[in-house]
């Protein structure tokens, strides 16, 4: 009896998770707003038109900014409930392995501290206009990292024209 209850509970949970998995792949059906990540009736989308390359050279790396739009849906992910104003997120991917320390660059008329190269799998994200940076592993596909990873990969493709 316990096995039957466990099996039924598992099937029920799988059916619920399938319902939640059907988020719109593009906000408003517009391909300029592809989905970054979705979970628990909320999703983030990239505004492809906002991707701006701030710096791109071998000596430093690739620095770009992009806008993310956050949307919430009803429980069945059928109706869009709310779309929040866009937030700008910055990414930095150092290229030069000899840059082992922080370096300062003038970007858009202000000094930005760029983090060091640590290894080929590490990039950085900033949610505060490039004032502070958080490293992440590009290859890490754990749930907690997927939003950042997907946002970086989508933005990188838009910024460079290449798949990372």
Q: Can you characterise this structure?
A:
By secondary structure, this protein is an alpha+beta fold. Helix content is 23%, strand content 40%. It is built from 2 helices and 9 strands, in the order αβββββββββα. It has helices at 2-20, 143-160, and strands at residues 35-39, 42-57, 61-73, 80-83, 87-94, 103-107, 110-114, 122-126, 134-137. The strands form 2 sheets. Strands 1, 2, 3, 4, 5, 8 and 9 form a 7-stranded antiparallel sheet that branches. It has a two-stranded antiparallel ribbon with strand order 6-7. Mean pLDDT is 89; it is low at 4-20.
Whole-number mean pLDDT: 89
CA radius of gyration is: 19 Å
N- to C-terminal separation?
50 Å
Instruction: Tell me the helix content.
Output: 10-25%
User: What sequence of helices (H) and strands (E) makes up the elements?
Assistant: HEEEEEEEEEH
Strand elements, count: 9
How big a fraction of the residues is strand? 35-45%
General form: elongated
Quaternary assembly? single chain
In DSSP terms (H or I, runs of 4 or more residues), the helix count works out at 2
Specify the biggest β-sheet. Answer: 7 strands, antiparallel
Provide the structure class.
Answer: alpha+beta
